[in-house]
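User: Predict structure, ligand NAI.
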Amino acid sequence: MKVSVFSTKPYDERFMAAANQGQHELVFLDVRLSPKTASLGCGCGAVCAFVNDDLGADVIAELAQSGVRLIALRSAGFNHIDLAAAQKANMAVARVPAYSPHAVAEHAVALILTLNRQLHRAYNRVRDGNFALDGLLGFDLWGKTVGIIGTGQIGENVARILNGFGCNLLAFDPYENPNCTDLGVRYVDLDDLLRASDIITLQCPLTPQTHHLIDADAIAKMKPGVMLINTSRGAVVDSSALIGGLKSGALGSVGLDVYEEEADLFFEDLSQTFIRDDVFARLLTFPNVLITGHQGFFTREALKAIAETTIANITAFERDGVPVHPVPMPGDR
Ligand code: NAI
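Assistant: Predicted complex:
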């Protein structure tokens, strides 16, 4: 099958080509899918897209009209696709439900450790010949309470790692994960988690219910000086509210791998220009804010699994008319 693979970087091309083994005709495109670029996918059997591609109704209609029958997402999250439009266009949507929950969980813990012991600042100090410790004071993770919002695959792995550090673990999730309760994780309601946690980490999907789940009201309920980590999706957090929380000291530190307006920033080298997003630019000025550019998934194991599952989805769709991992359509759930 001919497949237009949007938003590809050299590493995507390498892993996708290795998984494909010549089965499908992959057309690698470094541009993002958008109404301006959708025509590049026209005439293919499938379009393969990543997290910041635009899969709104207009794009879907144009692709469907040209004969595209499958959208194969190279991601677990599918908040960026208009599923109703895909359903109306009779287009199948596939995703990669699990590739390496370890990759993202380990990155969330890396953000916690770095922020707590201020490794991002210590690195620069030592290189500058400054060996003073003043300002780098951290705390023992042992005995601290960590609130995990969303205990699916990634949240469960965060719980496993932090259990090893001797943390008390609280969780909020509409569905209790028995593997987490076995670890000693205690499920509480959201307000109790916000009030009791020294560290809060977001591991839930972006849905209408979780959009701006962390806003000024939620921050006001948190322990003063709490550490907040978001490796889920940017819009789970109201970024402007973060600035207020950081300025007042309500938030002690913030680690973000995702940002609600990241589509205009992440995955590109913008070092020769300037940042137009004032909220993002302000966040970068805080020494107790650590931002990475959506790299939680970025391990060799995860890229291999993403590529292999994506190819398996396309192959199964071509053979049976159904991908291995279809995204449920509205009404299916
Ligand atoms: P999962 O589907 O295994 O788990 C999600 C959990 O969130 C489920 O247990 C679900 O019940 C829970 N949840 C749903 N609504 C909730 C709510 N309102 N409040 C609290 N919990 C809620 O998903 P997985 O694999 O653990 O991934 C979680 C999210 O992480 C993805 O949806 C994606 O947005 C993000 N992600 C980020 C990556 C990165 O590179 N930073 C890479 C992969 C995923």
